[in-house]
Every structure is written in structure tokens, then in C-alpha cells.
Amino acid sequence: MPAMPRGVKVAAVQMTSTQDVERNVDTALRLCTEAFDDGAALAVLPECFAYLGPEEGKIAIGEALPEGGPILKRFQDLARSRGAELVLGGFWERSDDAGKVRNACVHLAADGSVRSGYRKIHLFDVDLPDGTSLRESDTVEPGREPTVTTTAFGTLGLSVCYDLRFPELYRALVDRGAIALTVPAAFTLTTGKDHWHVLLRARAIEAQCYVIAAAQFGHHYGPRVSYGHALIADPWGTVLAECGDGEGFAIARIDPTEVERVRGAVPSLKHRRL
């Protein structure tokens, strides 16, 4: 008999979200369903999957956690009906501050329950060379705590987009037992074309973890354009699967024994001095 494949299949979704919440949610549900049909036990959605438009729009659709609202319920229903896990990469969570939301990375268990939630710590306040000016802190309340969660394949560290530039966060996630990391993102075209692959592979190599990077792609509204290239990298930094242009998903296996092998071959995590 042929050897059974090791590990658990996961998918990193790529989509182009806009101001049309209903269309965005329908697209996200369809792509996750297709990933589950392809054998994925867990699918990760990108940042801003339900809405990517002018700032006031995300405040209007914010839902409290863990109770949620109509958006969360639809994904809970999908997880429950398929017996599969979801990571809602950038869920607009209602804040105690009426003028803001939280950029939450929400893990739904296979029974549809909210297992864990991380709030994006590092907020994207920049003026880019192409003239794009973004001030995430104007409408988003930052998180404070690194967060891991338990999945079908082991411990998963949660992060969102701009967090990728802060390696100390991923060290904290590894210290909490992570063998894989999520990086759901809406990386701009300007930064993505030069930094996306380099940073993702670096985080995989230095943390000796799988990286599951769901991504926004293409034109959203006004001047806002995302780079795309959703991908999954292994603990050696090899890209196992990657999306091209357009909607879709990257799918690959997470194998905990590969994490053990890499950490044994290059025991850099054990050699830390600071």
C-alpha cells in the first residue's frame, strides 16, 4: 500500500474585497468551500475580507465577539456544516470606542465556535512613495497580546499584515508553542512587490514554522491596490504553494514532524541568548 500523506492540508485564500460586503462574504464563503472540497481542514481568509473601502464603512459593519452578528454567523455555519476550521484573517470587531473597530484574527473551530481571537497590535500609519497615505490608527484600536490557538495540526500563532515587519512578535508566538503562523494581509502593491516574499520567508526561517499567508489582490477602491501572492511556506523557507493573479487559494500540508526535523537540524531557537 502507498504511504499515507503526513500532516493536515490548509489553504490560504486570495480575493479582492471592495465596499460590497455581501459580495465579499459570498466570495469568501465560495473560496473556502472550494478549499474544503480540495481537502483543506483549515482555511485562512485575508485581512479586510468582508470590507475594504473608505474607513467609515468598517465601523458600520463591526460585530462584537464572541457573540458576533450576521457576518460571523455565516462563517460559523460553514465551519459547522463542513466540520472544518476557519481563520477569519481580518474581522472588523466592534470596539468599546464608538469611533473605532478592532482588526481581529478570529479562529473558528470545526463546530463553529470562536476558539480564539487576536487583535492586530501593529497598525499601518504610513505615507508611501506612490502617494498613498494610510492611517489605520484613526479607526482601529490596537491589540496588546500575542495569541496562539489550537488547531487540527497543532499550535497556530496569529498575526495580521503589518505585524509581519516585527520579528519579535513571532518569537513570542514560538515561545507559546507555535509550529505555524498566520499572516492574513492586504499588503499594498508598492510594498508587496519588494518585501512580501522576503519577509514571509524570513519569518518562516527564523521561527522555524510554517507560514500561512492569505492575501488581498488587485484594485479595491480609489488608489488602493493590493499585491496578492497568497502563499504557504515551510519551516525551511521554501514556498510550497502560491497564488498568481486573481481569486483563488494556495493549499499545502502542515506536517509537525517537518517542524521537528528542521528545528533539530538547525537548533537556532535553542541557541538564543537574548
Structure described in brief:
With 274 residues, the chain is of the alpha/beta class.
| Estimated radius of gyration | 17 Å
Strand content: 25-35%
The total beta strand count reads 16
CATH superfamily: Carbon-nitrogen hydrolase
Structural class: alpha/beta
> How many domain regions?
1
Topology:
Elements: E1 8-15, H1 21-37, E2 42-44, H2 55-60, H3 70-82, E3 85-94, E4 101-108, E5 114-119, E6 125-127, E7 133-135, E8 147-151, E9 154-158, H4 167-175, E10 180-182, H5 189-207, E11 210-213, E12 215-221, E13 224-227, E14 231-233, E15 239-242, E16 248-254, H6 256-265
Parallel strand pairs: 1-2, 1-12, 2-3, 9-10, 10-11
Antiparallel strand pairs: 1-16, 3-4, 4-5, 6-7, 8-9, 11-14, 12-13, 14-15
Helix pairs in contact: 1-3
Would you give an account of this structure?
The protein is an alpha/beta fold. It has a single domain (8-265), classed as Carbon-nitrogen hydrolase (Nitrilase/N-carbamoyl-D-aminoacid amidohydrolase). The chain is built from six helices and 16 strands. The strands form three sheets. Strands 1, 2, 3, 4, 5, 12, 13 and 16 form an eight-stranded mixed sheet that branches. A six-stranded mixed sheet has the order 8-9-10-11-14-15, with helices on one face. A two-stranded antiparallel ribbon has the order 6-7. Helix 4 (167-175) links the parallel strand 9 and strand 10 (180-182). Helix 1 (21-37) runs parallel beside helix 3. It is globular, with a radius of gyration of 17 Å. The termini are far apart.
